[in-house]
Amino acid sequence: MDTLSAVGLGVLQGLTEFLPVSSSGHLVIGQHLLGWQEPNLFFDVCLHVGTFLAVVVVFRRDIALLVHGGLGWLRRPLGGNPYDRDESRRLFELVLFGTIPTVIIGFAFKDVFESLFASVRAVGFSLLITGTLLWLTRRTASFRGWGPFDIRFRHAVLVGIAQALAITPGISRSGTTIAVALFLGFQREWAGRFSFLLFVPAVMGAITLELVKLRGVPDPFWPVVWGTAAAAVTGYVALRFLLAVVRHGRFHVFAPYCWALGIVCLAATFFR
Question: How confident is the model at residue 264 (pLDDT cuts 50, 70, 90)?
Answer without folding.
Answer: very high
